[in-house]
Amino acid sequence: MLVAIGTKNRAKTAAIQNIINSYFEDVQYIQVGVSSNVSEQPFSSEETRQGAINRALNTLEQAKADLNFGLEGGVQEIKNQMYCTNWGAVALKDGTVISAAGAQFLLPEEIAAELRAGKELGPVMDIYTKQQDTRSSSGAVGVFTAGLIDRTEMFEHIVKLLIGQYLFANRDV
């Protein structure tokens, strides 16, 4: 089975590989850098979902793999509070797209204010944590859950939802 990953982000790549390796054998991976065709910082659940779907379809177009993944993180406001939101999609060779959402968690107001001012969460978190490339390791979820959940684990849940739907749709009835 050929699996294409529409990102070079280490946390997202690890999430896909960890889950795929749990359910399939003889898997080959290809990574492609594709666009989400949405804002650098998606600002709604709908835009974040669309970014994941676009990444999956752009990955399919480029790689034509059996499973073509797109994962996207974004934010959304609910009653003046900003939540981090996460979506994933997998595009199959026939063009079928399966999508799923994952964890949502509240961002502190000082982070939300930076995003409202036009900044992107990844660089804001790097400044906040005084670390580099937090989006490829703990991510905001790791920081704001006291390390109980990191970004890879958060995306693993989404990938598991995607693979579960894929297996259900392809079961022998």
TrEMBL record:
Its EC number is 3.6.1.73. Keywords: Hydrolase, Magnesium, Manganese, Metal-binding, Nucleotide metabolism, Nucleotide-binding. SUPFAM superfamilies: ITPase-like (SSF52972). It catalyses: ITP + H2O = IDP + phosphate + H(+); XTP + H2O = XDP + phosphate + H(+). It is an enzyme of class 3 (hydrolase). Pfam families: NTPase_I-T. The keyword Phosphoprotein does not apply. The keyword Manganese applies. Its cofactor is Mg(2+); Mn(2+). Residues 6-161 form the Non-canonical purine NTP phosphatase/PRRC1 domain. GO terms for biological process: nucleotide metabolic process. One of its GO terms (molecular function) is ITPase activity. InterPro entries: ITPase-like_fam, NTPase/PRRC1, YjjX_NTPase. Belongs to the YjjX NTPase family. This is inosine/xanthosine triphosphatase. The lineage of its organism: Bacteria, Bacillati, Bacillota, Bacilli, Bacillales.
